[in-house]
Design brief:
single chain; about 250 residues; alpha/beta; 3-stranded parallel sheet; 9 strands; about 40% helix; globular
Length: about 250
């Protein structure tokens, strides 16, 4: 496996706490291409207390960035998305087109407050599922009340949501606790996506290859292929992931 798909990144220039400008965005994309990333979903933060760009503005900005990518002959394709901070009424915002899914699919990348109560997280996931969306919990290793008990992660996956972790957490860049939690999740096949969550050129850069190599060595090539290509491709194609305990759900 030589190419990867990144479903979580903050490379769109000057919209959130990620890339500061167009030149920084282009340099981040050059790094991504050198690292083997061939497709990337741009997921700027969408938070209720921020002035968020509307979907047409976002599409225009991504189109302009893709044009620059093509002029530089960078072999990478960009897709629109958002990292949605969960709030009451989010399903209705999605239905109205005021909040964005990943690559115009039914998948939504959703984040919560790191200290959110477990019941609040579970209820939010359930609301999105009942609205017809496929929630992917962003960087699940950050949520104290999910990490504290392993059966809670299992419960969420059985409910029907998917789990994304950051490559840096697997590689130990964000502390021992996060690494150990993610390691247990990987052993139990509870992780569906590994993403960069790239914000800059160095500390949170757009790198996946080292992590993919680690997972290939530790868990096998088939696991690496699922996490870095097959499941992300399901998002791009808007195909529901059926794997492992998801088979019990009887969903497409």
């Amino acid at each position: 496996m030589e190419n990867y798909i990144d479903i979580h990144s903050h490379i769109l220039p000057a919209v959130d706490d990620g890339s500061a400008n167009l030149e920084m965005s282009l340099e981040m994309l050059r790094i991504a291409v050198r690292d083997g990333i061939s497709q990337m979903i741009l997921t700027p933060h969408d938070k209720p207390w921020h002035k968020n760009r509307d979907r047409s503005e976002m599409d225009d900005e991504i189109g302009r960035l893709q044009e620059r990518v093509q002029k530089e002959a960078l072999d990478i394709r960009l897709y629109a998305g958002s990292e949605l901070y969960y709030r009451n009424g989010l399903t209705e915002e999605l239905d109205a087109g005021k909040a964005g899914t990943l690559a115009n699919s039914h998948y939504v990348l959703v984040e919560f407050d790191p200290l959110a109560d477990y019941d609040y997280i579970r209820n939010g996931v359930y609301a999105l599922l009942m609205g017809g969306y496929y929630p992917i919990i962003a960087h699940v290793e950050r949520y104290k009340n999910v990490c504290s008990k392993r059966d809670r992660a299992v419960d969420l996956v059985r409910l029907g949501c998917f789990m994304q972790v950051n490559a840096g957490s697997i590689m130990g860049r964000y502390g021992f606790g996060a690494k150990q939690f993610v390691k247990k999740m990987l052993k139990q096949d509870l992780i569906h996506f590994v993403a960069t969550d790239a914000h800059d050129l160095e500390r949170r850069g757009p790198y996946l290859s080292a992590c993919a190599g680690y997972i290939k060595k530790k868990y096998g090539e088939s696991s690496a292929k699922r996490l870095f290509w097959d499941y992300p491709m399901c998002v791009l194609n808007d195909e529901y992931i059926v794997h492992g305990i998801h088979r019990d759900l009887g969903r497409r």
